Sequence to fold (476 residues):
Amino acid sequence: MKKIPSIFILSLALLASCTKAPKPVGPVPTRQQLEWQQLETYAFIHFGLNTFNDMEWGFGDTPSYTFNPTNLDCEQWVLTLKNCGMKGIIFTAKHHDGFCLWPTETTEYSIKNTYYKEGHGDLVRELSEACKKHGMRFGLYLSPWDRNQADYGYQGYVQVYHQQIKELTSNYGELFEFWFDGANGGTGWYGGANDMRSIVAEHYYDYEKARDIVWSHCPHAAIFGGTVPTLRWIGNEEGVAGTTMWSNYHPDYVSLNDTKALSHGFVDGEAWLPAEVDVSIRPGWFYHEREDDEVKSLEQLTDIYFHSVGRNANLLLNFPVNKEGRIPSIDSLRAAEWYRSLGALFQKDLLQGCKVTASNTRASRFSPKCVLDEDDTKYWATEDGIRRADLVFEFPESTEITSLLLQEYIPLGQNVKHFTLSRYVNGKWLPIDMEEELTTIGYMRLVRFDPVKVEKLRIRFWVAKGTLCMSKVAAY
Ligand code: FUL
Fold:
């Protein structure tokens, strides 16, 4: 038999290995984390006793009868938020004051003891049903800190807290996210004691058990806060993620409130812990009439979008409900204007119709054309070991662009560490000047720049942790 040259066998082996999908780089998202990331924008609703008493952090002694909305309509909330592109709502079932907006069996400090529906109201039910009716995801915020409970700081309260989680997760259908707030301990009414209670949150609340209760009823819920979250806080309430933003994180840092680490993540983090940017459309989280003229401007909201969703994080935008029980029209009109303006900006992908080439391609099924289609299971990938490569888009005619969208194929991890953009005009490659550094991409990176004319656009990926895998590139 004729001997097959070993170089031939080697080439065949290389070819076979390259038609296979690349190996993941570092930690990868779970299916639940991936679905959560794809939500991109959803709303917070802060409503409760604070709304009626012009407070942000009730002390725990405000009489429950002061909760008295006159024209409450959960469908108005849902339709308003749907109209500005929100995919879900997270509702404050209980804030730090301990007042419960559902008829819990754990305390008398609840909606049962108000004039609302003569004590037969249940806002968690009303909102969950309105969300279901209009195809909106539903999630809950339950403050661990409770300034009303006499037992707060002692073991008895932890059982109450776990019982509240059980009531909320077992009676209102599927939840997409459960929020354990990080503000913990301090002064409060505490059943009349009027004192100061300090706790060590990581140990006190038994968050592993709390998580298990959530998942035993709502197995797909993302978890914010506590010791075993599936996502992390971004480290500020201003609506800004770091320009370098890894979804990778060091497990040892989960319980530390290290704001720098939270806003940037870690290039070599061993866990997948994507970030959520929470920010209010007004200065406060709860409604205050005096803030009616401080609703964020279109420009501020647009910056927030680019600095959150555009930097590999999800945006949780808060809408306070007013004393009537409605989202005020100033807020809803502004948010709708913002959504329309984003829609106009992202209306037409100018890369559609371009010829796309790459300096390296793994195999035909990982062709650079994959970055132009809408199928997020397809991606352009380089051969094993190739961590530096170019993607070039050739326009049919000179075209003006002002922004770019990039997405890595994150089911295989987050990979890109640095990239640059250049444009080809009059026979020369020129850099596209950028205000922010172009480091990470992750699930999504949006970059804005002054309008430039391009005949060709080049994205140069300079450094990556492993094989490059890009699922989408678009220009506007
Ligand atoms: C913080 C709370 O103290 C604020 O009142 C608000 O609920 C915000 C979303 O989280 O920790």
